Amino acid sequence: MTAQLLIGIFIPSESLAETLREPLSHSRFVVSWSENSADFLDWAIDNRHQIDCLILQQHSVVYESLIELQQRDILLPTLIVESERRAAELDQAYHEAVIKLAADELADLEKSIHKAVDRFLKLPAVPGSSQAELSAPDHRLFLLSLQQQRLSEKLKERLGYLGVYYKRNPRNFLRSVSVLERDEFLNKLRQDYRHIILIYFSQDDTLNQKIDDFVNVAFFADISISQIVEIHMELIDEFSKQLQLEGRNEEILLDYRLTLIDLIAHLCEMYRRSIPRE
């Protein structure tokens, strides 16, 4: 089964949104629609490691949302739909790889999405920066590169190259980044693992995707198995203390060893596949 691309859409204009629904209804994308800026921001922040492209309208409300994402160092492939052809500020406000599309060009929407992704994968274009300057650890470039690697590998799978072995950039390994970046990354990883634990025995349809995303992020940052075990034990210890305070039995926590085994198995498979074949 090939990976599907996740597309996030925020189009304040109802008429323009309706125009978009037709081409997207026949596409192979997974689409999430946001009705207002608050919903869009919450969704984009929560799913920043899964989103493959944003489709947005040229609108002041959207501009504010993009500025918020930029300030959080959340950079994603983006397609801006314009109701009319005019000079725009959204493209440069977010990042230099934003693609603009006129409302009368929506028939080629899928092609435009792939163009936006392709241009995003070629970032960064940092004017006036020397190679020496770019070699220094940079928080935004680190996060951008992780996102690009994740998306690049997902596209390879989406196109059917299932046998591809994964190539990683050592500059993105956790041991190569600053203490601040490392702490932020591990905190996000703990939050993601906590969410997986909480839904592991539920009927949540997103569980497998969340596990895959967690493993991909851990793999590209070269997270060791022992670090995953440490995250698991810290979380289980936290749950155990809470159950003790509530006077409840802690034995239920033993079941969550299955979660740890599941994730480790996935991560080990990723590392196995990272060994180049002769």
From TrEMBL:
Q: Which Gene3D superfamilies match?
A: 3.40.50.2300, KaiA/RbsU domain
Q: Which residues form the KaiA C-terminal domain?
A: 169-277
Q: Where is the KaiA N-terminal domain?
A: 1-159
Picking any one GO biological process from the record gives: circadian rhythm
Q: Which domain of life is it from?
A: Bacteria
Q: Which InterPro entries match?
A: CheY-like_superfamily (IPR011006), Circadian_clock_KaiA (IPR011648), Circadian_clock_KaiA_N (IPR020844), Circadian_clock_protein_KaiA_C (IPR020856), KaiA/RbsU_helical_domain_sf (IPR017944)
The UniProt keywords, alphabetically, are: Biological rhythms
Tell me if Membrane is a UniProt keyword of this record: no
Kindly give the Pfam families that the UniProt entry links to this protein.
Answer: KaiA, KaiA_N
Do the record's keywords include Amino-acid biosynthesis?
no
Q: What is this protein called?
A: Circadian clock oscillator protein KaiA
